[in-house]
Amino acid sequence: MSKLQQLDALIGKILRVSIIAITIIVIGAMTLQVLGRYFIPLPFYGLDEFTGHTAVWFYMLGAAYSASKSDHIKADMLEIFKVPPKAQYVISLIASAISIVIAGFMIVWSYKYLVWSISKHEVTPSLHIPTSVFQISILVGAVLLFIYFIKELVSRIRHKQPFVDEEYESMVSNQ
Q1: How far apart are CA 6 and CA 1, in angstroms?
Q2: Number of H helices, E strands in the chain
Q3: In angstroms, rounded to a whole number, what is the distance separating the alpha carbons of residues 89 and 98?
């Protein structure tokens, strides 16, 4: 296993553990919200805010993990309309390139947004947590998406297949 594959496996493991931990935290916070609102006449100030901001980490890391497995949402209309395989391949390359460009724009935008937020010393209204703690998730997610979209494009070019997924990759590498 090459160093790059080891790094990819490590990042995948970190993403999985992070997503599970964030899911547990968000579920716990939402449970406290419901309990506090309907069963205990005790409001938990800032819990809505914390849950919403933490969910952004979940969304961005989930998107990156999904992209790492090539499981992200795709509209595979090409197969429905019986587009020839060569055209499917070219269109998939274009789609990958567009995904890379969009992720690149997200990186630039989220970096500028994060720098602006830090310079303004923005904090959340109730808990006074620096908003950069939550906004950095957009940058991290965008960088990971960018990397995984490049990996997907390279994989498509290398295997000359329009839709290469992890199962196909393992099948090819085991031969």
Answers
A1: 7
A2: 6, 0
A3: 14
> Looking at the whole model, is its pTM more than 0.85?
no
Give Cα 149 to chain centroid, integer Å. Answer: 11
**Which 3-state string (H, E, C) describes the chain?**
CCHHHHHHHHHHHHHHHHHHHHHHHHHHHHHHHHHHHHHCCCCCCCHHHHHHHHHHHHHHHHHHHHHHCCCCCCCCHHHHCCCCHHHHHHHHHHHHHHHHHHHHHHHHHHHHHHHHHHHCCCECCCCCCECHHHHHHHHHHHHHHHHHHHHHHHHHHHHCCCCCCHHHHHHHHCC
Distance between CA atoms of residues 118 and 114, nearest Å:
6
Q: Which residues contact 123 (CB under 8 A, 6 or more apart)?
A: 129, 130, 131
Q: CA 14 to CA 18: how far, in whole Å?
A: 6
> 66-99 burial by CB neighbour count: b if 16+ within 10 A, else e?
ebbebebeeeeebeeeeeeeeebbeebeebbeeb
pLDDT mean values, one per 10 residues, the chain (175 residues): 86 94 92 83 80 91 88 62 79 90 97 95 89 93 94 86 55 49
The two tokens of residue 170 are 């393992």
CA nearest neighbour of 57 among 129, 115, 165: 129
